[in-house]
Amino acid sequence: MSEHQPTPAPAVDAGDATAPATPTPGPLPALGATAGFRKTVTEADVVLFAGITGDFAPQHVDADYMSRHPLGERVAHGILTLGIASTAASALCAQERLVAVSAGYDRLRFLRPVLLGDTVDCRYEVVAVDGERRRASARVEVRNQRGEMCLAATHLLHCY
């Protein structure tokens, strides 16, 4: 064999203990498990989110425009608020030692605008677990510092 030819890889025996096995499914969240996340929504959050998504609508980035609007000031993007709420789902996954991905949101409602400077408190509670489908449903609620509900949804998690 020439010194420039690669050495063939050794054959892997199907019974070899080093051969990859089908992964065992991980845990599912406990019914009633809760997690949360709290954050003050800043000017930087809104500006960066606008830059990432391209959503430069005046209600988010134009203080002068909004000063003449009934709200009187700029509001955070609804999806930014949902993204912050998603952090509560990540906290639950870490706490419950889950490997999971979002399978979507049902009944998502933006109930009140989140203003720049508001502190939002996101609460996440597992309300249903389907072991056969490896899915969990959680109630998601986001309230501002005045206790007013800003966002409500049901989050669907697919657990691996």
Map the helices and strands.
Layout: E1 34-40, H1 43-53, H2 58-61, H3 63-67, H4 78-96, E2 100-110, E3 119-130, E4 135-143, E5 149-159
Antiparallel strand pairs: 1-3, 2-5, 3-4, 4-5
How would you concisely characterize the structure shown here?
The chain has 160 residues and is of the alpha+beta class. It is built from four helices and five strands, in the order βααααββββ. It has helices at 43-53, 58-61, 63-67, 78-96, and strands at 34-40, 100-110, 119-130, 135-143, 149-159.
Give a structural overview.
The structure is a single chain. With 160 residues, this protein is of the alpha+beta class. The protein is built from four helices and five strands; from the N terminus they run βααααββββ. A hairpin with a 4-residue loop joins strand 3 and strand 4. It has a five-stranded antiparallel sheet with strand order 1-3-4-5-2.
User: What count of helical segments does DSSP give?
Assistant: 4
Write down the overall geometry.
elongated
Order of SSEs, N→C? EHHHHEEEE
| Structural class estimated from helices and strands | alpha+beta
Round the Cα radius of gyration to an integer and report it.
Answer: 23 Å
- How are the strands of the largest sheet arranged? 1-3-4-5-2
Report the strand count.
Answer: 5
What descriptors fit this protein?
160 residues, alpha+beta, 5-stranded antiparallel β-sheet, 4 helices, 24% helix, 31% strand
